[in-house]
Specification:
The protein is of the alpha+beta class and 165 residues long. The chain is 23% helix and 21% strand. It contains 4 helices and 9 strands, in the order βααβββαββββαβ. Strand 5 and strand 6 form a beta hairpin. The radius of gyration is 20 Å and the shape is globular.
Length: 165
Amino acid sequence: MPVMFVEPGETVDVRQIEKIESALQASLPADYRKFLLTNGGSVPEPNELPDTPDVGVSLFFTVGDLLANKSDYSDRIPDGFLPIADLEGGNLLCISLNSKDFGTLYYWDHESEADEGETPGHENVEKISDTFSTFWNALRRLELEEDDDDDDSEVWVEPGFLKKE
């Protein structure tokens, strides 16, 4: 089922995107530009990318946040990558602005990032989609399973657990 937004994004116009592109000294992929114009800075409902563990978007960044996050992560993500969304668990969704893989989306894992002072490489990034459109169309609403057999109202505690020694 397609992902809906629980908090819609801000209204964005082409001039704002052009300012960002000018500051980045790079164009944004057309499909991502279109997404920003209609959904910039949106909070989606819980979601997942089928067959790709740990990829669930918690927030798509606003146009204003793109430059701030690019700066904040400049010494932590590979050159030419632009963080465009927060993923569950503190990771990032990045889009490549490099000519060799322009528009490709990557999962950036903060747990395996380069040590402070080291140049960030590609050891902690994983390609997850060739284009933003492909990614967006594959993203699915997270279907939470209800387990009617579990009764969470009782907990067993080891006798003597709270005794002082």
